[in-house]
Structure formats: structure tokens, C-alpha cells
Specification:
By secondary structure, the chain is an alpha/beta fold. It has helices spanning 18-24, 42-46, 62-72, 89-98, 173-193, 200-217, 224-252, and strands at residues 5-11, 30-35, 53-55, 77-82, 85-87, 106-115, 120-121, 129-136, 157-168. The protein folds into 2 domains: 5-168, Spore Coat Polysaccharide Biosynthesis Protein SpsA, Chain A (Alpha-Beta Complex), CATH 3.90.550.10; 173-252, no CATH class.
């Protein structure tokens, strides 16, 4: 490519998945990896693909950690990935083509397709999953959200790419549920700092609506039992995060 591209990845203890991610972007000009303190073979695997490895074990949250990875990139155009994501050949070809004439104030949204419990999920609010991941860091950067981070590019022209970004999420149901609980705690902490509260009515409403939204409104029913499972887990996640927030206030009362 004439336009040089950096890939920015954050990771921690991803020895079982990160190699597939790195192989899928071996064609780019630079791979930057920011590790959060891996204790497995993650860094050994990463070193086979790049020497641009940085350690930041003092976890600042997803937004700031990704911002750090982007800052370490030496090229202006950046493709931000998670270590459990894989760039398809079709997506690679689209990226190579579109960057040749891309305006630096344009951002590109990738269509992520998630593989969950041995099945690709095409509904349930998980697909289409269009997320800004390709952008010019001269103009755009990640926000500082501790979870559900995103690129600050509200006014930017957005172009959707068709090629799939495969997302091989958690290898076991137990790990996925544990991760959702950690997200719920992080969400509650961020809302508590903002002075937000959760009433019983709010907890009940949001919990019930979470199931309805994913299973019915977002067509989880079409994903079969996997859709039902995702909807129940999302309902439990919602119930947990609002209760974590509610009882944080009780502790300080």
C-alpha cells in the first residue's frame, strides 16, 4: 500500500487467540501491541510478529488503554483491533483499496460477526455490528470510557466496509459470564462516580426490557437457543449492573 497503516492491539493473557489475529494483519506496515500484564505466552507469540510491544499493567480502562496503543503507532492511519478479532481476506482487500484515496477526515466502520459457543450469531443485536475501527489519528482518537469505549468521531463522514471482521469471543460460557460480570462492576463504578442512582423500578424495567430488546426486537429468536441464551445473559447483566450501582450507594449511606 502507498498509504501506510498501523494496527493497534491491546491484550492480556490471550495466548490461545492472539496468533490468529496477528496472522490476519501480517500485511500491514506496523503492528503495535499494548499488553496489560500477561502471565502466559502471549508476549512470546506477539514477538514473532512485531517488536513494537509496550506494557501498561496499571489498567486504566479500555478507552485509555486503546488510546495508548493508538498513540504508539507511527503511522497516521490506524486499524484498532481486539486480540480475539480476525480480519477476513475480503475486509483486507477493501481496506487496501479504500486507503489509496481516503480523505483523512473520513472514518471506516467494520462489520463485526461474532462467533459464540460454536456458532456465528447473525441477530440478537450482535449483527450487523458496525463499529469505527479504521481512522486517521491526526483527527480522531478513542474516548476515555472504562468499558464500551469508542472513537470520538461524531461529525466525521463514515463509510461502511462490507468484509467481515470475525470476532471469536470467549472460548467458554463460564468465561463469557465472568467477563459480563466484570463489565457490570465497571459500569456501576463509572455511574457511581457520576452520582447516578438505581431505584427498584429502574432495575425491574431495564432488566425485563433487556430480554425483550435482544430476543424480540433484535430478533434473537432467529438465532435459536443461542439467541435465547444471549438474551437471558444480557438480562442478567443488566440486573447485576444496576444492583451493583444500587448497593454502592447503600455502602456509603
Amino acid at each position: 500500500m502507498k498509504t501506510k497503516l498501523s494496527v493497534a492491539i491491546i491484550c492480556k493473557n490471550e495466548e490461545s487467540r492472539i496468533k490468529r489475529c496477528l496472522e490476519s494483519v501480517s500485511w500491514v506496515d506496523e503492528i503495535v501491541v499494548v499488553d496489560s500484564g500477561s502471565t502466559d505466552k502471549t508476549l512470546e507469540i506477539v514477538s514473532e510478529f512485531t517488536d513494537k510491544i509496550f506494557i501498561n499493567a496499571d489498567w486504566p480502562g479500555f478507552g485509555l488503554q486503546k488510546r495508548l496503543a493508538v498513540d504508539k503507532a507511527t503511522n497516521n492511519w490506524v486499524l484498532a483491533l481486539d486480540s480475539d478479532e480476525v480480519v477476513s481476506e475480503e475486509l483486507k482487500n477493501e481496506i487496501v483499496k479504500c486507503l489509496q484515496s481516503a480523505d483523512e477526515k473520513t472514518v471506516f466502520r467494520l462489520n463485526r460477526l461474532t462467533y459464540f459457543c460454536n456458532k456465528f450469531i447473525y441477530h440478537s443485536g450482535w449483527h450487523p455490528d458496525k463499529i469505527v475501527r479504521l481512522f486517521n489519528k491526526k483527527h480522531y482518537q478513542y474516548n476515555d470510557a472504562s468499558i464500551h469505549e469508542s472513537v470520538n468521531c461524531k461529525e466525521a463522514k463514515k463509510i461502511d466496509l462490507k468484509g467481515k471482521l470475525f470476532h471469536y469471543t470467549f472460548e467458554s460460557l463460564e468465561k463469557y459470564i465472568d467477563k459480563r460480570n466484570s463489565y457490570a462492576k465497571a459500569w456501576a463504578e463509572s455511574q457511581f462516580k457520576k452520582g447516578k442512582k438505581a431505584s427498584v423500578i429502574k432495575i425491574l424495567f431495564h432488566t425485563l426490557f433487556a430480554f425483550i430488546r435482544h430476543y424480540i426486537l433484535r430478533l434473537g429468536v432467529l438465532d435459536g437457543y443461542h439467541g435465547f441464551l444471549i438474551s437471558v445473559i444480557q438480562m442478567q447483566y443488566t440486573f447485576n449492573k444496576y444492583n451493583f450501582l444500587r448497593f454502592k450507594h447503600h455502602k456509603t449511606a
